[in-house]
Amino acid sequence: MHDHPRDACGVIGLYNVPDAAPLAALGLHALQHRGQESAGIATSHDGRLHLYKGMGLVSSVFAGDIARRLPGNAAIGHVRYSTAGESNFANAQPLVGRYSGGEAAVAHNGNLADSQRLYNALCSGGALFQTGTDSEIFLHLMAHELAVNDEEIGRILALAGPAFAVVLLFPDRLIAARDPLGYRPLVVGRLGEGSVAASETCAFDQIGAVFEREVQPGEMVVFDKNECRSMFFAEQNLTPARCLLELIYFARPDSLVFGETPHLFRRRCGMRLAQEHPADADIVVPIPDSGMSAAMGYADGLNLPFERGLIRNHYVGRSFISPGQEARAAAVRMKNNVVREVVRDKRVVLVDDSLIRGTTTSALGRELRSAGAREVHLRIACPPTRHPCIYGVDFPRREELLAHRLSLEDIRTLLNMDSLGYLSLEGLTGLFGEDSDCFCTSCWSGEYRAAPGRKDRLKAEFIPIPL
Ligand code: SF4
Residue 443 Cα, ligand 1 centroid: separation in angstroms? Predict the structure, then answer.
């Protein structure tokens, strides 16, 4: 039972870097927060692609010297959390395929919002899908359209439509690309004489690479032995729809994502939350680790002491978490313990970055009260989450989203809080000034810019496939 949405995946690519696979594995360690179900690396060597992947964490899939056995100076890697397709070996990435253009490997972060139409169209043209993940669509599109050169690959990417950040590996080159609206993050940099791409800059820090820039929405960056070149496969004047939840929750606080440092952005969210929903309280306590940065900002905003009233045990696996009220309460205690001397007789403001099902938050409220807190006020550093995501983030079903089925007052009562305040959507997007409309807010607003059947507004993003 998870109480936060989960990300879809992390990707990394290295080109012209000696012993690329061990470095790719190292980079994947830094991206582990983006997916823990499977990990894999594909390399290119002597005109052939090589692949190793498995279920589990990077440290277990690439235990010992497994990565060293993958030859080559070019590699792509992937960590997966399943949002489209089951969690099984076949769906682990990278996916490698052979078509008339040769071999190709794909590592994809995101969900293709129009995947059903693409799947139906490709199947009716004779495609046989080997996995249950929409990422395979990239390979089939390449095969169907006989895409080999850069322009042809660009056309494939335009056909796939949002949402993707993808790295593609061929025997002679590597391509890093983002969909035309730029939902998911992707950055490029330098490592010695070589080039790198990754979902987040924390992977660059891990391997000693230097960040250069974001891949732009609708851009593909091509690395081959002669050069690094950029091509746009979609209109460049589209307003982007960067995933705001990346900044609020998913991305590591120390990364650089969409030009922001998530830790600092979350602090600003907390400060804005303090302006919108001040509380008459003694201390501010974060729900660890997700609410840490926002709680700092909230405490700063009201000049209240920031206290670690809850301590997280980082060694609790998901397997411990089982259904049933008693088991859940025990699981919550196992994961977070109250520091009694900190909260006793205090009016506590509990801060988190988001509230999805509310099960953990409700249990933490009870724990704080039983440890002697006089009042517990809950503050959430994003708007009420009422709608699912179709762009590559795993949410519970709509009916399980607390804010979808209950009013704010009912949520407060259910969670037994003395008060409840969410950051407003205007307050959140207002933090970006004139760029306030450059972000996706669908899970709060319910308005989906890129959706199947929305070709009227999305001519540039969904080009019909001529099958
Ligand atoms: S719906 Fe929410 S989680 Fe999904 S891309 Fe948009 S902001 Fe991100």
Answer: 6
Is the CB of residue 400 less than 8 Å from the CB of residue 203? no
How confident is residue 239, by pLDDT bands cut at 50, 70 and 90? very high
Task: Kindly give the distance from the C-alpha atom of residue 184 to the centroid of ligand 1, in angstroms, as a whole number.
Answer: 9
123 is catalytic: no
Q: Amino acid letter at 162? A: P
pLDDT greater at residue 47 or residue 161: 47
Residue 216 is classified by DSSP as: P
Distance CA 10, CA 167 (A): 10
Report helix, strand or coil for 224: strand
Instruction: From the CA of 244, give the closest atom in ligand 1.
Output: 7
In this prediction, residue 424 carries a pLDDT of 98
CA distance 2 to 383: 19
Q: By percentage, how much of the chain surpasses pLDDT 70? A: 91
Question: Residues with Cβ within 6 A of ligand 1?
Answer: 183, 243-245, 389, 391, 393, 440-443
Q: Could you give all domains of the chain from N- to C-terminal order, each with its CATH number?
A: 9-239 (3.60.20.10), 262-430+437-444 (3.40.50.2020)
Residue owning the nearest CA to atom 5 of ligand 1: 243
C-alpha 277 to ligand 1 mean position (Å): 24
Residue nearest ligand 1's atom 4 by CA? 389
Mean pLDDT in residue range 326-341 = 79
Q: Which residues contact 87 (CB under 8 A, 6 or more apart)?
A: 37, 38, 55, 80
Q: How far apart are the first and last CA of the chain?
A: 42
**Residue 323 alpha carbon to ligand 1 centre in Å:** 27
Residue whose token pair is 């692609």: 49
Identify the band that residue 83 occupies on the pLDDT scale cut at 50, 70 and 90: low
| 335 CB neighbour count, 10 Å cutoff | 20
Q: Which of 105, 90, 80 is nearest to 28 (CA)?
A: 80
Which secondary-structure segment (H or E) carries 359? helix 359-370
CA atoms within 13 A on the CB side of 184: 30
Report d(CA 376, CA 285) in Å as an integer: 10
Q: Identify which of 81, 245, 249 to mutate to test ligand 1's pocket (most ligand atoms within 8 A of the CB).
A: 245
Ligand 1 atom index nearest CA of 387? 1
Q: How confident is the model at residue 321 (pLDDT cuts 50, 70, 90)?
A: very low
Q: How far apart are CA 361 and CA 332, in angstroms?
A: 9
For atom 8 of ligand 1, the residue with the nearest CA is 243
Q: Please answer whether residues 199 and 255 qualify as being in contact, where contact means their C-beta atoms are separated by less than 8 angstroms.
A: no
